[in-house]
């Protein structure tokens, strides 16, 4: 029996490596997105607390000014973090698309390999069956004589 040799095996291995790298990049992008989202939530929470503080009682003018400046800073920070979340979300989508593309490329070669292996196995089985039939025929012919 001949050994099966898939000539595109090196290409398949490269595609597998590319898929692993894409999955790793997707994982990193997902973690970055979650981190940015957590920072945005933390900043939004601080902003909400600052609005709650103003309703707790009367404030001195300097406290009011300090609170106003603090809120402005938090609003700017929240807006900046929203933009970071948006960019991280776009990066996550790009990485997801790249991972899917890499998986699709690998699966195409994997299916080609499986089809070629199946064809090789069928060919080997037919050759073995032909050989068995010939031996049986020769045995029958030998015993008739």
Description of the molecule:
- Helices cover 90% and strands 0% of the residues.
- By secondary structure, the protein is mostly helical.
- The chain has a domain at 9-105: Helix Hairpins.
- It is rod-shaped and about 125 Å long.
Unreliable segments of 5+ consecutive residues: none
Largest pleated sheet:
none
Instruction: Find the structural class using helix and strand composition.
Output: mainly alpha
Mean of all residue-level pLDDT scores: 92
Q: Which strand-content bin applies to the residues? A: under 5%
Question: How much helix is in the residues?
Answer: over 70%
Number of helices: 2
What is the CA-based Rg, rounded? 34 Å
The CATH topology assignment of the domain at 9-105 is: Helix Hairpins
- Kindly state the number of beta strands: 0
CATH architecture of the domain at 9-105: Orthogonal Bundle
Distance between the termini: 32 Å
Overall morphology: rod-shaped
Q: H/E order of the elements? A: HH
CATH class value of the domain at 9-105: Mainly Alpha
Task: Provide key terms for this protein.
mainly alpha, rod-shaped, Helix Hairpins
Short synopsis of the structure:
With 145 residues, the chain is mostly helical. Helices cover 90% and strands 0% of the residues.
Question: What topology emerges from the helices and strands here?
Answer:
Elements: H1 9-54, H2 61-144
